[in-house]
């Protein structure tokens, strides 16, 4: 049996940053396991720029951003295995993994960092009526074909969902000579970043239909067309609003789902709101010594935030290995109230917070001129004015430790309130 | 000159071919599709019925229970997933109880073994998620679940191992009667044969009418289904509702691969090929299924699909020499319980052929067993380790959701009747069947197919040869690769 202090599952931005930070903080014996043929994760197929504005104060492409971490990891002699699939993780932190070279490996870790990222929601999950032809791709799969494998997926394209990958792909396909006919969004707002709507749709005159969805898929072999329609406030298609498109390709950018089969298998509690594990301030799951960071915990908008969160996880793991993490489990829990769809972390042990407690959350709809009210049980501890809040943009709240310590409370709540 | 040409490589044609491969006959299967079992065989309830449904004087009633009894040996020989999990027809009132009693009595006439009518407490002990208003049920322990296309694929492969030929993407466009047999005209030229077996599914009437009196018709009866993700422990048996004037109800069943299947509704469609799902029909399936159970986690749906049943105008199988066409055998109207009946029907067809041409001789070297399909995911830790040591390709996981390895995909391509499309790989290995529905593994499967078949990526279809996936290389393919 192989033995490591820390096994990091996933060699994308989250796993890389966590491993590097743990090493920086004195953990020597680390193994990063990556299932793909190279480190870097999904960044490797994100060849557009815009990565790194927060972390490096410059605009990098996805592969460039990844490369900085990969170089650092290699220069620090952190061990990693590519083409390696983790089959299971047990509660006692035994990792079962395979690859063609090493065969079946049973690895005992003192701590594990989960950094498996997320996967895309598929057509099956939203049950688009019609036939099942080829030419229906999730946006990320199309991105992989185009950017990694060098093949085009179609010529006339409709995109369902206005998540960031869908928007980026609208531009990418246009630059590759395809005609993007429309981006169709079920919600009254886009799930993507504003900058992507401007730079990827507006700049190329690609129409965005809000409150619309695809109601039919045609073609017995390759996709031949789709029908879209406007939806009412209950998301039901409104008869008479149908628009038919002749197209050979339908791209789906309808959401990302944290990939937590291993997490659940290890017995960690899953938060149904985030679809990720319940974590505490140290990014530790409900299984002691199993930490998680990045999109496996909750889906982030920017890789920069993934990096920051993962560094925190890396530092916590180092403390855990050195027995410096307080395991006083009687902290408080965070709860999203009116207008808040989730908060990470879900549990807080204030002893492990340095100076500030950072909360990450998403709102459930678009708000203008409101405030976020944070309460410790009934007592308001902070109010933050917000000109604009949207579900597509993750909110970040910093609370000074001083505001929270020496108080005895069970729930830290956040809600959206009209400005006075 | 062939002794026998079978038109249609579905579960009927495939299994009959396997039965015929036991004899010294020159047999060819043709199919218009590019894969075995790609039409009605690929989209149905995947159930081996016990056999209490159809009237005893119907062929459906005659062949079902006897076919059912043969599946243990067949699936062992052909290495096809099969589980005899039993079925329940559940009733909620006295009218249902009457129906259940009738089904039971009919089952006795059809020689269905071990049936019992059971009461509420026992039902809820067996199936705690069933609607608590249930009052009684017909329990038929011999009912089972199977991989239907796996059965067709395995049957054809085993038939080919024993000398049968397969010609795919071959569409029959005409049939001419000649001395001592027939000439079949196809898009790929003429085929001469003594006998023809028509297993053409929803097109069996069209094929029949090419050479025989048009004495029956086949309509496509469509059914919509939902598939739930693995790990939803909803039911352990096949759960049927009582048939009423309004229809046969919606069934809920586990699949052999651990998913839950819910469906089908029933609607006659004019377009014989249409397998489009429909929002209204899917909501009907959803609402009707909820009568059986306390709750169904529809947020765990990973796919919906529709399949066709080849329904004959007499509502029964048509298994006979066609009127006015000697040596032309119809196996038509083969809707449910066709899959359940096929072992018995195949034996019957061989008897018909023996009566027609006489003197069938057994092959000395017939091998009933198909080479085992290694399913990496179901092996023990030790077996996995040993296998990778021997064949490193088993250490390369391609489909993450179902843990399907490269070696399994390569094997599926190179067996007799091997995979030529992404869907064909999916049907054989389950790569792409999981919750990500091929999002991660799709490009890798295309890559492996292209490599193993020595083709360009753009030549690899998703399903039929017209269902292309990729159009061309990107403008700056080379440049991209460097980045």
Describe this structure in words.
With 420 residues, chain A is α/β, with parallel strands linked by helices. Chain A is built from 9 helices and 29 strands. In chain A, helix 1 packs parallel to helix 2, helix 1 (13-24) runs parallel beside helix 8 and helix 4 (139-149) packs across helix 5 (164-175). Chain A is globular. The mean pLDDT of chain A is 95. Among the domains of chain B are: 82-143 and 220-311, D-Amino Acid Oxidase, subunit A, domain 2 (D-Amino Acid Oxidase, Chain A, domain 2), CATH 3.30.9.10; 376-482. Chain B has helices spanning 11-20, 59-69, 71-78, 94-109, 120-126, 148-161, 204-209, 279-292, 338-357, 381-390, 406-414, 422-429, 441-453, 477-482, and strands at residues 2-7, 27-30, 47-48, 82-83, 87-91, 116-119, 136-140, 144-146, 165-167, 172-178, 181-186, 189-198, 218-228, 238-241, 251-254, 260-263, 267-269, 301-312, 318-321, 328-332, 397-399, 404-405. In chain B, strand 11 (181-186) and strand 12 form a beta hairpin. In chain B, helix 1 runs parallel beside helix 6 (148-161), helix 1 (11-20) packs across helix 9 and helix 11 (406-414) crosses helix 13. In chain B, 56% of the residues are buried. Chains A and B meet through strand 7, strand 8, helix 3, helix 4 and strand 14 of A and strand 18, helix 10, helix 13 and helix 14 of B.
Largest sheet of chain B: 8 strands, mixed
Please state the average pLDDT score of chain A: 95
Share of residues in strands of chain A: 35-45%
Largest interface: A-B, 55 and 58 residues
At CATH level 3, the topology of the domain at 82-143 and 220-311 in chain B is D-Amino Acid Oxidase, Chain A, domain 2
- Note the main sheet of chain A: 7 strands, mixed
Name the CATH superfamily classification of the largest domain in chain A: FAD/NAD(P)-binding domain
Unreliable runs of chain B: none
Integer count of domains of chain A: 3
The shape of chain A is globular
Overall form of chain B: globular
Rg calculated over all Cα atoms of chain B: 23 Å
CATH classification class of the largest domain in chain A: Alpha Beta
Query: Would you count the extended β strands of chain B for me?
Result: 22
Structural class, judged by helices and strands of chain A? alpha/beta
The span between the termini of chain B is 57 Å
Please give the count of helices of chain B. 14
Distance between the termini of chain A: 62 Å
Mean pLDDT of chain B: 95
